[in-house]
Specification:
Elements (H helix, E strand, L loop, with lengths): L42 E10 L3 E10 L5 E7 L8
Antiparallel strand pairs: 1-2, 2-3
């Protein structure tokens, strides 16, 4: 490449995601204390992406009791919407 006098163009890496602002954060009530001394004292939730079949997807939202790890409720949907929480 030096003999021909050509050079390659180095492209900058572009990230597909954006940084979340303060509007997406809630107050840290648990302060990383994920143990409870009684039932229904502390609950946590998570939304999980499930892929099935030929490219089909679903979202699973579960509410877990931190006292004994039991699932209190769950919801499955084809859309990741706020009603899952």
């Amino acid at each position: 490449m030096n003999i021909l006098g050509i050079s390659s163009v180095i492209r900058r890496v572009s990230h597909a995601c954006t940084k979340a602002g303060d509007r997406f954060y809630e107050e840290n009530i648990l302060n990383r204390e994920f143990t409870a001394t009684a039932h229904n004292q502390k609950w946590c939730t998570d939304v999980t992406y499930l892929q099935y079949g030929l490219g089909a997807k679903a979202y699973l939202s579960a509410i877990k009791d931190l006292y004994n790890g039991s699932i209190i409720a769950y919801e499955i949907s084809h859309n990741n919407e706020i009603h899952l929480l």
